[in-house]
Predict the structure.
Amino acid sequence: MSVIRVALIQSDLVWQDSAANRNALEQQIQTHKGAQLFLLPEMFNTGFSMDSTRIAETMEGLTVQWMQQQAKHTGAAICGSAAIAEQGHIFNRLLFVTPDGAVQCYDKRHLFRMGAEQQHYQAGSERVIVSYLGFRFCLQVCYDLRFPVFARNQQDYDVLIYVANWPQPRRQVWRTLLQARAIENQAYVLGCNRVGTDGNALNYSGDSMVINYLGQIQTELPAGQSGVLMAELDLDALQQFKQKFPAYLDADPFVLTPSF
């Protein structure tokens, strides 16, 4: 498939209320059934809470079940992160759920120490690439955006996904780095962020956007407004551009250390 339709849901989140957030997001999903991939913000069911033991669910819990139900009902993949408890640890886990019920996972590698995230969650250790409808998606979460080596395209993906709870005071950093990741990796970038105010009185402007492989903002939502951002990604166009401008052939080789 050369073209995929994506929908980024820029939503306010009810603090630590999973049921309320699932219900609100379900309404958005049900009214945009033309999408083939839905993106939800980081910790879409609770907000970016450090009360990890209270909010964490298991992979058999209601949130993962809900994602599977939504994917099956809409025939689209659903992608968003939640606090997941597993083997004595709690992860900020990005879940990519396909209509057949399969769940692929990426555990956030870079934990936001300025918010003490590393004291409440276990860092992930591996990059994860998901293949879906002919596209290869590299899964990343929020603070990962600041670390370009971990996201470097080794010609193993076509689209970078960032889901986030990225506060309004640093919105220019968010916007700038999303475009930088697209340019340096010659890939589409999807940045899905929340709006509203969380339980720690932090404000979020959203600035959700789709950026093409040239680093151009293809489409974006107005700052501070809830809504659904729809866009089409064209794999043939990406591949043709890389054939004409193969900068990746001159990239410096590197190997991620075993700590990753």
